[in-house]
Amino acid sequence: MRIWSFGASYWAVLIFALSAATQVERGACSAQNSDLPGSSALFQYVVFICLIGCWFDVDSREKKTLRVWDMGFFLYLAWPVIVPYYLVKTRGLKRALLTLLLFVIVNFGAFVAGATIFKPPR
Question: Of 79, 98, 105, 114, whose CA is between 20 and 30 Å from 89?
Fold first, then answer.
């Protein structure tokens, strides 16, 4: 099975799941007053950028829109600007804002959950 045979929603779920897992770990580290291990942060960021790139490619094929051609360094630097712009262009302002709001809520909730669950006993 080719990697592109999965739909864009599959990649979006993976992005949300990775973001939630990342924020749980960051919340746990914050609750214990420790730093996030460097290798963990590097792994999370590299995988996140790869997932964003796969989602962009598959979604632009499904929507038959102009594709983002630079999936490398430009995406690495500018994904916080590119993703909202792409969502607004392909889904409209309302759906884009709802998607971004859901992303923020999932990340914030996962961070709080991680900080609460892994808080050391007094």
Answer: 105
